[in-house]
Amino acid sequence: MFSGPIAGAIEYAGRATNVPRRIGCGLGRIGGLAQGLIVPASLLMAWSVWARLGWLPEQILPPPSEVFGAMRDTIDDGTLLSSTLTSLRRVAEGFFAGAVFGLAFGFVTGASRLAESLFAPLFLTLSQVPTLGWIPILVLFVGIDELLKILVIGWAAFIPVALNTAQGVRDVPRTYLELGRVLSLSRLSTLRSIILPSAVPSIFTGLREGLANSWQTLVAVELIASFEGLGYLMAYGRQLFQLELVLVAMIVVGLIGLSIHLLLSLIESHLQRWNPRGQS
Amino acid sequence: MTSSVMDVRNELVRAPDRKLAVAPSTPRLRPLIVPIILLALWEIAAHTGLADPRFLPTLEAIAVRGVKEFAEDGLTSDLTASLARDLLGFVVGASVGVALGLALGFSRLLERLLSPLLLAHRQIALFAWVPLISMWFGGGEAGKLVFIALAAFQPALTNTWQGVAGIPKIYRELSRVLTYDGWDFAVVIALPGALPGIFTGLHAALIYAWTSTVGAELLLDIAPGIGGRMNEGQHLFHIDLLFLCVFLLGLIGMVFNLIAGAAERRLLRWRRS
């Protein structure tokens, strides 16, 4: 991590987004799973019973049947799929851009003390501004089209990727680097066979946090300024007081969040297998 | 270098919160070089007309706007409104989060019952709650507060829970050997053991709350607050106001980070020794 108290703080803030491993494990146990279903199942039951008895106004919570109906309708007319694809494309583009620049920036500031002292403080200062706070200015500069979304989502991904990459590169054990020098490895082979493998866990942490940030930011930016996508679907449903549409979009947002989480856990456990030191 | 010197050096470099962590050879002013160059370029571009002043006002113009805003009590009341909203939401959300996190950490049953629900809740991006919250609680003050509290709740809960769960098994066994009851265990072992996790959670909650304050002010009904002024700046094309607001947002974020970091170090000092 970058040096200085702010960096420490950012590190904490970033780390906090990690799901405790224990939750993931707890879910794996079948017995725990059955117990875990008690509360959601009773909530669902209470919801449908109350709705049937007419105790819940539809503006507060439409009955489950209506939510499923809205889901079927939006699937049938294609809006749900096209909104989802639009949102996924935006996240992919923004995350990719942010990750590429973040990796480059992280590598340079992690490897070079000079680069770190020149650029890291400025970067850390800028990263203190909540990402959404840039939107009003950016709207004036680039309008509300795709570029706005890519910039905001990209910046959200850039911060954790750059921080963690720099940390990973900086924390390469000195003895490994000395070994490389003893073996008179070229710069390229040092990078490929020493720095990169050693920094991978940290880089991966950065990418994971970056993707999570991108997804969070996507929803926000689509609520603020867009005419398609899941965030827009929600804003639209809210304007028309169609709460079932809002809930459908929330369910899809949750499912995608869950898939991202599971996919990353899978990749991570795969990566950890060959890395004897394990995730930091 | 001998290995012991290397060790000391590594130790210093690792410690993220020490001044020494900046390499001793780094000239103190070097971090200022790039910002100064950028600001100088900005001034030159703004003064020579290279950049459209509607988009890039001179730095003096922003400063003048700032002085005027604060002198005429424009931004002062907005700043107070935002901070009050932020801190109230933070206190509510973080206390519920810490309390629930402790409960989950202590009770296996509660953990089994609630963890799938909480895991599902985690997956839904925070801002996806905004439309629902605004329909349930309105877009006014209540809706904003609920959203900010929700933002603070999640990291406080997760880290507290993790903190209690991370208490070494030996300590738990020790408490059984000493025949501690639940209360003694909680006060003597669990709380001190979970403290670092709780602080991490509170720190993150502070940052999340601030981010969501900005988000709530931009997304929900316009009300006094920095976000409301940014909406105004965007619609009236007052870019000096926007730059000023971004500067304030960053400044407050930084102050929160510094305060939380200092508090953490001070309160956890006993762990170092």
Ranges of chain B where pLDDT stays below 50 over 5 or more residues in a row are: 1-24
- What is the count of β-strands of chain A? 0
From the spread of the alpha carbons, the general shape of chain B counts as elongated
CATH topology of chain A: MetI-like fold
Helix-strand pattern of chain B? HHHHHHHHHHHH
CATH class of one domain in chain B: Mainly Alpha
With helices defined by DSSP (H or I, 4 residues minimum), what is the helix count of chain B?
12
**CATH architectural designation of one domain in chain B:** Orthogonal Bundle
Mind telling me the CATH class of chain A? Mainly Alpha
Radius of gyration of chain A: 23 Å
Kindly report the greatest chain-chain contact and the residue count on each side. Answer: A-B, 82 and 82 residues
Rg value of chain B: 24 Å
For the sheet with most strands of chain A, the description reads: none
Which structural class is indicated by helix and strand composition of chain A? Answer: mainly alpha
How far is the N terminus from the C terminus of chain A? 12 Å
- End-to-end separation of chain B: 28 Å
As residue ranges, the low-confidence spans of chain A are 1-28
